[in-house]
């Protein structure tokens, strides 16, 4: 009783702690980290994240006690200029609490995993001092993400938006001077730069949306905007469409949709916990959260909604096709993430906000599981490789060397280029790493959407909504789901079955519990997660319904709530026809992948069987449909050309060589040498003064002649003088 | 009686001739003689005025003039002797060491 009373009011005031626990954690690590052991640093950071999770749980409890009513907790004044007032308030409602729980929950598990992972990674790359930095950045990320999801205005959301973009940059470029094997390379820094620049383009869209919103609504606070949304849309519909489409640009940047998804595959250059946390579970979902939060705006403009849904669906299919042709274990998962984000964006675009958020939460579980398990696999191969170079003393034999990094440089050391993430180096790992295998399998089945794991429920909710109102989107998403199951199956057969194609894989070792235990927790969540929104119960729909009103729920349960009786195959909101079709397609895809990759496992050095079958189509998939090449040719190189033109021609030749040197310096030199020196100084001033001297000389020369020394002339002069004086006196 | 003017004209003529001699002649002895001539012309003028106005001032002044001219000639002649010893000539045109 007392707890519920306190929880109704007191717990809400704890909300700033979700930001400040991670901040305190990172400050302690920065200031005292040099004195602390690795374990202490890691567990401290995990505890900071864990405490943020505890606070999120308390907020959830308090919120359910308050019947899901949104709470706005003012925190600080930020901008106050005249009548303009933009404070820093925290918003605790069901949508933001959902995000808080996901971010801090999955985040804490990943922190714990990272303790074990980074311990091995910094030693593999031979730089143990960098361990602390990782956890400082991870905590900073959690803090920023919390600001993003708990803000009460679009501006606070943007502060967090930018902050997570920064942390993404810092963490992708964590090994900014080394490549995967620890050799000097700036490839990671380039990937980080690419991520930041592409994100910036999205941010530009977001800023345009915010400015338009401020101009139209006069405020950026959620309450003000959503309250006036209907009347503004009625008066100026074009403005709301503009706002929503500008926000879509931001979403495509942050959530890696077409056309700004190109940074995410490169972001796999970062350590695996980063890929799991930022680029699978949390940061990339910020775009989906943004659209869900802006539901009142989007539901007013169906045209914009259709565009959003289409962008999501096309991205889903596009990325899924690319994933089929990738050889790096993390790249497959990266394109899978882009594809699944496409599902989410399509869902919230269609107005099925609950379905989209549900998939967001489920995807966070199984994608984090998959990425972390992939990290475990990579570590296993690194351990195997380490064993070989230590114990056998001669370079490990391989017929298939590392993929993108090798080729051009000669290795002076006996260790040749070996990519621990290349699936062509793997094989038969289920015997070496059984725990990882089972966890990976659970993640795969969840992603493929096999009943009764998590992905099944969320994905089918999206497909059911699509089938009702957006047939094109439905077709695209279903085909994407087929490909999803296919490439995941391909991955399982290539990595865990068959025979090892590289000695490192043959000697791979299982990971320690500190790595596998968080994975088990995530696996459990992946298995049971579906319970969040089961048919007939719709716990999550009701929970989110408090914030999203009827919009989220209506689309999800469209068929069940229509006036006429729901068709027989729709049970409590679950469309059995759609579910059955997608499950069937998933099973067919897995069977197909078994036929190609499982029945006759790949041998070392063998080319991918699909290459012969599909020819240039497979090359397109392998080379990600040349999107990066097109961007480089169309935009980046044109920009470099422009910059070079401005630097060499405009700044160099025109400004410096011509204007500065010829015009300015030349004029000045002419002025000083010729105009001033020759003409004025020489002919003018010198002539004048020389003339004076000349005059004096001549005058004296002529007067000197009076003094000729002759007495007689002197006498004559006296006579003249006398005559003059006498004459004067006489004339007077 | 003879008018005063006549005496003054003679005095003037004599003076002019003395000036001419000083300016033109190169021999210092002749120059001295010319100077004497000028002085005497002045003397004549003085005496003429005395006679004309029946005062004695002029005649007294004549004595002064005569004394001065005698002294001056003595000094001058002594100078000429000394100059002749060094330059072996008394042409005044040769004595232009003060030429500037």
Textual characterization of the structure:
The complex is a heterodimer of chains A (732) and B (100). Chain A is mostly helical and 732 residues long. In chain A, a hairpin with a 2-residue loop joins strand 1 (71-81) and strand 2. Chain A is 73% helix and 3% strand. Chain A has helices spanning 2-9, 17-32, 38-65, 94-124, 131-150, 154-172, 187-217, 222-235, 237-254, 263-266, 272-281, 286-293, 295-298, 302-324, 329-350, 353-391, 429-432, 434-448, 454-469, 471-496, 503-506, 513-528, 539-556, 558-561, 576-598, 609-614, 616-622, 627-704, 711-731; strands at 71-81, 84-92, 570-571, 574-575. In chain A, the strands form 2 sheets. Chain A has a two-stranded antiparallel sheet with strand order 1-2. A two-stranded antiparallel sheet of chain A has the order 3-4. In chain A, helix 20 (471-496) runs parallel beside helix 25. Chain B has 100 residues and is mainly alpha-helical. Chain B contains 3 helices and no strands. Chain A binds chain B through residues 704, 707-712, 715-716, 719, and chain B through 19, 22-24, 26, 92-93, 95-100.
What's the gist of this structure?
The complex is a heterodimer of chains A (732) and B (100). Chain A has 732 residues and is mainly alpha-helical.
Distance between the termini of chain A: 139 Å
Shape of chain A: elongated
- Outline of chain B, from the CA principal axes? elongated
Assembly annotation = heterodimer
Mean pLDDT of chain B: 92
* Helical percentage of chain A: over 70%
Note the total helix count of chain B: 3
Summarize this structure as a short list of keywords or feature phrases.
heterodimer, A: 732 residues, mainly alpha, two-stranded antiparallel ribbon, B: mainly alpha
